[in-house]
Amino acid sequence: MEDRRARWQTAPLPRVTDPDPERYRSHRSGGRRRGSRWHWLLWLPVIIALFPAIFNRAEPTLMGLPFYYWGQLAFALLCAVLTAVVHLATKGR
Amino acid sequence: MVVPAQHSTEFWIFMATFVGIAVTGLLAARWRPAQNVHTLEEWGLGGRAFGNWVTFFLLSGDVFTAYTFVALPTLVFGLGGIGFGMTYFAIAFPMVFVLLARFWSVSHVHGFVTPAEFVRARFGSRSLAAGIAITGIVATMPYIALQLVAIEAVFTVMGLPRGLPLTIAFAVLALFTFVSGLRAPALISIVKDALVVWTVLTVLLIVFTRDGGWATVTKAADTRFNASPNPIDGLFLLPDNYLQYVTSAMGAAVALFLYPHTLTAALAAKNRSTLRRNLAVMPLYSLTLGILALAGLVAILDGVRPLDGDGNTVLPLWFDKAFPDWAAALAYSAIAVGAMVPAAIMSIAVANLFTRDVYRVYIKPDATPGQETRVSRIVSLGAKIGAVLVILLIDTQFAFDLQLIGGGFILQTLPAVAFGLYTAWFHRYALFAGLVAGLVTCLALLYDVPQLGGPDGRTVVREHFGGSAWPLSNLGIDTNASVYVGFIALAINLIVIVVGTPLLRALGVKDGTDKTDARDYYADEGDERVRRLTDLLDGESESEGHPSGQHSWSGRATY
């Protein structure tokens, strides 16, 4: 048991040389890759969601449904569009 | 068996669907059969090989549980605007999109099956990992029980007796999970989504073909909320409730990422791009939940009254009233199947946590992949039996209390699991102390929240565990606003970690070794790095006498 524990604590991760170190150019400073600026877009739906005063209203109605309800469903759509854009923009980088 | 006379059409269609599901679940083991079934990667993660469509179905079946489908319309029916929490998804999905991809990559490189394994490798602490695993198990168990509550609501409306039908339903679920592992819910979730989409289309069709459409619906709801003396309900949010609404949404969104069953379903994706692509379109699925929640408003117009005071019967009752019999039966099946998929994944997630982070670390460190799988199968069975016993023997309220606690508990794993994906700065013991402080705070605060009810919504119905809104007036601030309890506990947790980390380092307490590399967090299937690591590790495990079979991932977690 002791033995096992010691090994578990000291077992080194095998060193592997990356074939294309350029891809991870700045990984030492926080592990960010190129293209991550696109991710800022994802904050948009989050920020809207944090301020209910923006969408807590009746007008404009959509087919009789108050904005509070259909607007939240529309955010879901917006969310899907934004994540899809970010995915496509950062794919394969 | 007694067929309820009034609901015989519904009953037989429901039964036919159910039998179809049971057969599908059992046959799932033969679907893309594994070369070696007796490894945890095969049973518990479907061989990490699910492609585009299956990943979508599995994740949506996991995130949108039957209980949510039943509980959300109930909330909207009872309270109106504050129950319509779609903003939760606007917070959850962007976050999950980024975090799950990182989690998938690091798990793929190192062969992790559970979040606790990641924590063990990242922070080098077995006890911290065990703490994360146990918190995950405790938080997920009541969630399984709630899926039963959803099925039970359907059975009640169909007029079936309590007890036996529920036991049979779960026995079937237990059987096919035991045999097929994660392949069963993956295959069944396809049927589930077809049924859900069908149900949602029926709801829309019914509302649109009515006179007045949504305008009549919202008018009727507005009238009822205005007539009730309860200060919380209403078609819209009250400014006093903003803080509670936002903090609850944030808490639930973060919890969505942290719940072990979400991570299990994500790890089953065959590569990083598949996972990201599916997560990108997942917000669309929340439209189905949104429309079902709106059905709660329609139920007000149609004058639905909950059966035996059980709020969860609102949606099934409305189906019964507004849908033709056969369509109602399909909607019931959607709920029942929608309960089985997440219940199966949750029980597998709980089993994997126990096997990889308790059994393998503390009980039998040299367990073979075959033994691991056997233990996982038995534990997943135990998790389901436990859930049935809680519902049938103790009472449903107990499950709700536990779920309330579990939701706050799982949030406390945020620093280690989610922040850990970005930084290893935290000291392992500071994380552990923070986790404990968070759990204790959460439990203590929830214990202190009374349940308010009565006609005016101000009478104390129950002394403890009455909700998760903690009034800020407790701090002496003159306001009616309240905060989600899990949030306060998380704040304390983080304070302990941020203060504790430099303190422990100043005292010279040794840090754990971080076994991950910054590049691991972006790795994808077929990357040069991943393949070489696999070869190296497989070579190592063979030389130790661990026959790892054909599958390259088995017997890997040496951390």
Keywords:
heterodimer, A: 93 residues, mainly alpha, 48% helix, B: 559 residues, Sodium/glucose cotransporter, two-stranded antiparallel sheet, 22 helices, globular
How do the helices and strands line up, and which of them pair or pack?
The complex is a heterodimer of chains A (93) and B (559).
Chain A: H1 2-10, H2 43-50, H3 52-55, H4 67-90
Chain B: H1 8-27, H2 40-45, H3 52-63, H4 66-79, H5 87-110, H6 115-123, H7 126-158, H8 164-180, H9 183-208, H10 213-227, H11 242-258, H12 260-267, H13 272-281, H14 286-301, H15 314-322, H16 325-363, H17 369-393, H18 396-411, H19 414-417, H20 428-448, E1 451-453, E2 459-462, E3 469-471, E4 482-484, H21 485-506, H22 528-543
Antiparallel strand pairs in B: 1-2, 3-4
Helix pairs in contact in B: 1-8, 1-9, 1-16, 3-9, 3-12, 3-13, 3-16, 4-7, 4-14, 4-16, 5-11, 5-13, 6-7, 7-16, 7-17, 7-18, 7-20, 8-16, 8-17, 9-14, 9-16, 10-14, 11-18, 12-16, 15-16, 16-17, 18-20, 18-21, 20-21
Task: Tell me about this structure.
The complex is a heterodimer of chains A (93) and B (559). Chain A contains 4 helices and no strands. By secondary structure, chain A is mainly α. Chain A has a domain at 33-93. The two termini of chain A are 44 Å apart. In chain A, 20% of the residues are buried. Mean pLDDT of chain A is 70; it is low at 1-32. Chain B has one domain: Sodium/glucose cotransporter (Up-down Bundle), CATH 1.20.1730. Chain B has helices at residues 8-27, 40-45, 52-63, 66-79, 87-110, 115-123, 126-158, 164-180, 183-208, 213-227, 242-258, 260-267, 272-281, 286-301, 314-322, 325-363, 369-393, 396-411, 414-417, 428-448, 485-506, 528-543, and strands spanning 451-453, 459-462, 469-471, 482-484. In chain B, the strands form 2 sheets. A two-stranded antiparallel ribbon of chain B has the order 1-2. A two-stranded antiparallel ribbon of chain B has the order 3-4. Chain B is globular. Chain B: One of its GO terms (cellular component) is plasma membrane. Chain B: Residues 549-559 have a biased composition (Polar residues). Chain B: Residues 538-559 are annotated as: Disordered.
